[in-house]
Every structure is written in structure tokens, then in C-alpha cells.
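Query form — protein ATP-binding cassette domain-containing protein

QUESTION: What is the three-dimensional structure of this chain?
INPUT:
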Amino acid sequence: MTIRFDNVTYAYRRWNRPILTDFTYSLPAGLTVLLGPNGAGKSTLLKLAAGTVRPAHGTITLDDVPSTARSYRHAVGWLPQHVQPMPQLTAREYVAYTGWLKGMATSTAHEKAATALERVDLTEQAEVKTHRLSGGQLRRLGVAATLVHDTQVLLLDEPTAGLDPQQRRTFRNVLASLTDQVRILMSTHDTQDLAEEADHVTVLRAGRILHTGTSKEFLAHTPASVAPGRAAEAAYTAILNRDGNASG
Ligand SMILES: Nc1ncnc2c1ncn2[C@@H]1O[C@H](COP(=O)(O)OP(=O)(O)OP(=O)(O)O)[C@@H](O)[C@H]1O
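ANSWER: The C-alpha cells for ATP-binding cassette domain-containing protein are given below.
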């Protein structure tokens, strides 16, 4: 099951310049990292894919189901940049409540919540009130909430921003463990982190795809003299520079 953008054009206001124009993209299997400078259109792309905003032209589909359909929004989970705790709820109740909001029976929502928490490695925190969770645990709680209703595609907007290195590692490991069942598109500014877990990399600038391919193909852009620890950052810079030179 994958999300396809076909000739999508989107502007925030009818009279504004479009952020995406005639944009075509198909989300590959596994974990895809979405890179791009500030204002490239990453969040806009994720919001369109989540069905929270609609294109002016073109179509966004999940195996032929349009993004306007209820079944589309059930199959696609979107994690915004900030996960708000609900102080009165435990982690388990929070996830079950999300399932209930999506139309699940209360008993099913509780059952599915336990499985979703297990998938993000939060079983031990199931009875902890959400405002007592750490920043990294809160992000994983957000992922559990999006997984509770049998999500096929997970969209994450800078989920590792503000996390310390240990929390980022745990978060990435959790994402990597989900990719056998869920396709994931994750935006980030954390270029170096991605080299470890991403299957694919897409680079966006000014609403255009500069590069999309496997991580190996992405890293092949690394200049020869660069130390391995800097490879992803250097590959990203090389792709941006190549485009800058071509369009300049
Ligand atoms: N609600 C909005 N109304 C009008 N313009 C917007 C709105 N949200 C974003 N934009 C504009 O759309 C463009 C793309 O923004 P978007 O947030 O998608 O980029 P981004 O790649 O996610 O950036 P960042 O890395 O800074 O989060 C920017 O020029 C931004 O100013």
C-alpha cells in the first residue's frame, strides 16, 4: 500500500505562489527520510499526504483510494511536530482514547492500545500519566496513537527535533522495527542520523524533488575526501550545490 502524488499543485491561498506545482511522487517501502532547507515544503507535503489539507489540482491516493476518503484517513497516521500530553490520562488511556475517537469500540481500543504501546517499547510506561513521560517517550506515545487503528502509512514531521542523542537513537530503532508493516515518511533536519536507519532519502527544495532513491544512492553523492562520520551531511550539501549550480 503506498501513497502517490500525481500532478499535485498546492498553494496556501488561491492568490499565493504554489508551494508544490505539478508534483508527482510515490512513497517507497520502508523508512523514507525527507530532507530539505527551511521552507522547502516538507511539512506541506506531509499535511497533504495526511489529508489535512487538499490539493488545488492533481490527486493524492493510497492504492487508488483518494485522500478525501474516510478509509484513507484511517489508513494514514500523521504525527505533528508537538505531541500534547493529556495530564489526566495514562499512556494506555491516551492511546485507547485516540482509537475510540477513530470509531473503535472501547474494549477494542484498549486491546489495540496495549499492542501499539508494545510496538513503540512503552509497555512499562502504560500506566504512567502522560505529562510524566520524557520528551522521547511522548513522541513514541504519539506514534503508538497513530498505530492504534491499523495504520498502513506513518507520516512524521521532525519527530526527533529537540531529543537528546539517546532518545533519538531509541526513537529511530522503534521506527526501524515498524517498517515491516508500515511505510514511514519522516522529515528531519538531522541529516547525519538518517544514515543509520533510513531505507530511502528524498531531498526537496522549493517544492521540487532534487533527489529520491535508496540511502546507498544518496550516500553515493558524498565527495571522496569526506570522513565517514560526515558522509550524509556532505552528500546532502553536494545535492543542494549541484542543483544550485544547475539552476544558477
Ligand atoms: N499556513 C501557511 N500559510 C501560508 N504560507 C505557509 C503556511 N505554512 C507554510 N507556509 C509557507 O509554505 C512554504 C513551505 O513551508 P513548509 O512548512 O511546508 O516548509 P518546511 O520544508 O517544512 O520548512 P521547515 O523546515 O522550516 O519546517 C514556506 O514558504 C512557508 O512560509
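ADDITIONAL NOTE: The chain has one domain: 3-247.
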